[in-house]
Structure formats: C-alpha cells, structure tokens
Design a protein that fits this description.
Length: 264
Amino acid sequence: MYLLVFGMRSILTHSRLLLSWSLVVSLFLTDAAIAEDEWGADLNIYGWLPIISIELEDGTKDEITRGDILDDFDIAALWSVRARKGSWSLTSDFIYLDISKKSDVSLFSLAPGLARLDEAGFNAWIITPNVGYTILDNDRQKIDLYAGARYFRIEFDVTIDIDPITPGEPSSSRKESPSVSQWDGIVGARGRYHLPGKWFIPYSVNAGTGESDLTWGAQAGIGYKYSGLSAVLGWRYLTYDVGSDNIIKELTLNGPFAGVVFHW
C-alpha cells in the first residue's frame, strides 16, 4: 500500500494564479473604495487537521492520519480573503499542504522482497474563488448564495527501490512525479446564525462538477466575535470524485479546523 506525502514542486506554477486573484481582491480595497465607507474586507487565517483518504485508480486505498500530518508536514498555508460591498461579496479560499515521510513498504504482495516504496510524497493546492450575494440579512441570521470555481492540483513525488532479481546484481531506484490538475464549477450557500451575546454559528455547503465527476464540501462550527475580529472552531469536510481516468480516483479531507477572522 502506498504512503503518500506532499512536496513543493508546484509552488511557482500556482503562485501566479494565487497572486492574480489576490490582486483582484486588492483592487477592491483601494483608498478610494474605503473612503466611500461601503466596502468591507475579511481575512481568515486558519488551521485544518483532516484525515486524508485517497483511493488510487487501481483501487489501492491509503489514509494519512492527523498524527502523520503533525509529525511530517513541511508547509501548510490556509487562508481566505473576502471583499464586501452591499449585498455582493468576492471571496477566495486557499489551501496548500506539503508533507514528507520516509517509508519502507512492499509494493508487490506476491514478491515482498522485490520492490519497496522508499519515499513517497505529494503537494496539493485547492483554490476556490467565488462571487456571493446576500439573500437574507437580519438580526437573527445572514445567508449568502454563491457561485464560482474550485481548482485542485495534486502532484506526487515517489521513489521506489528495486531489489535485484538475481544475487550479485546491484539494486536500483526509480523516481516518478505523476500529477492531477482540475477545474470545477461550484454553487453553494453560506451563512451565520446569531446566538445570544457575541456567539454565532457559521456554516457553508457547496457542490459542483467539471473536469472531476463530483466535488462537494461542507463546514460548520461555533464562533465568538470580538472587536474587529472573530474566533471560530468547527469541522470541515471536502471530497473529490476525480474519475477513473486519473491516477487518483477519490480524495477526501475530513477533520476539525480553528481560525481567526479579521474584519475591516
């Protein structure tokens, strides 16, 4: 069974996408716009500790536990930004994960001494830009409908050690870097239900398709609003049915998150 881990090879490629979207958001937040006193912005910096479940094209299944992530991640960058004006909002969520782990796993059950997975890795980007519109906003709750896209890329870095078939032959190793990159359109709803005092319940759900067969996600939690910022704790679920024509068939991330949201 493969043990999969994150690398960093795609940072330069996807930083251009990240910077382009961030530039769009920054254009909304110029001094002129703020001077109108109609624009607002939110910056959410959070941590997410999911169990990562993967099913490969050949049916092989693997799971990266929360302990694996805590022990072996190299870089984790998770944040979202939102610009608001009236009932409209422009939002994007960014997730980048990079985990590395050594392993010594047999690749062939019929010949356990023939090949071993010496090192495996993967890095992943998940970026979700969207435009939202508020359909309900009162003292009790706020609900937005939104539509946009989700970009998903995962790249593997795998090193396989192959033992000699006959005595006396040297061992060898092979490196491979297969990847999957997809765009999907999504629609969803998000909201906030106000509780007594400064407490509130945030939630969001979305689903879509495109290059993948299906992707959907949901999250909910409990939050507390301070002056100029909010603290949120909750649970998030995200899954991809990538399709049978890729090295990955299914990918699921499921676990708790905690974050701080700054409001302007």
